[in-house]
């Protein structure tokens, strides 16, 4: 291994990696060296130090955020807002991004989550196929092919492309589909040391959906959006099979309210539902997790009996392109999760731990909302637009999602 890589390891107290070299082929050493030279160990050191610090007790002024309930809009009002949105979509100023960096392991599926097959009343359909069905429906309605960008991860990038190629992109125009990868960060053990995976490389994991801002700029997607004169971009997770991501009403409402960011919500079922909700914190839009919302506030209601903090985040967002231009170099706060991760020990033995042993660091896309004074919130009905496929069984499982999908597509 070249001296520069060795110096980096020593500088950042990661020289334990050198003990693996006798077990590595020259090619494996070269791959590891390239990885060492690529990783920002200075940033990694700072991130790890946060895991040892007590969080600062900052004053948090939590307030209700205004929203528009789609079901309470008059027919005329809906038509008025939809016409504004239709003009944007029909003029080619609209695009869709699907965040599809995850694997289907929680579903017992080997491969990208988008390649998971569901047994619907319209026959067996892959999650990616359902997304493309929605795009094709919009293509017919608006007489335009909407550009589709798919954010993958290093873990599933090649498999995602191969799958869609094998299925001929489910008859969607291949020239309007582009793939880009989200970033990665090494996992760190409790001593702040990187670990080695069975492929003889430093083990890394996707850095969370908050990495999308940097990834859009780094990958050339932002330049592509500019070259196509696209103004509005809808972003959602791959696993919500009822996501209505070509929605002229949301576009029109956001434009009318003169906002740059919008989100869709569904009504919280009860004060104790374990979900993140939209609110304002210290005057800016924020998603607050249920564990951070005081019980008294969670139970507060307005004069109409609606929960004051009842707008559930369903990860359906609309952005003006300028947001990505402004946030291309953004550094969002990292959130650490303590997880189990297998690794190679210094004797070359693969260890499967029984307890959590590493920190995984992620950023969240919605943490950037605080950089804006306000955003548009459109409340929609769960049964119309929210059917996530997350768990193998129970809530948010293929069974519950397909039931909602079938009811919607009667």
Polypeptide structure, described:
The protein contains 13 helices and 20 strands. The protein has 410 residues and is of the alpha/beta class. The strands form six sheets. An eight-stranded mixed beta sheet has the order 2-20-12-15-11-3-6-7, with helices on both faces. It has a three-stranded antiparallel beta sheet with strand order 1-13-14, with no helix packed on it. A hairpin with a 2-residue loop joins strand 13 (277-281) and strand 14 (284-288). The model has no long low-confidence stretch (mean pLDDT 95).
What would a concise description of this structure say?
The chain has 410 residues and is an alpha/beta fold. It is built from 13 helices and 20 strands.
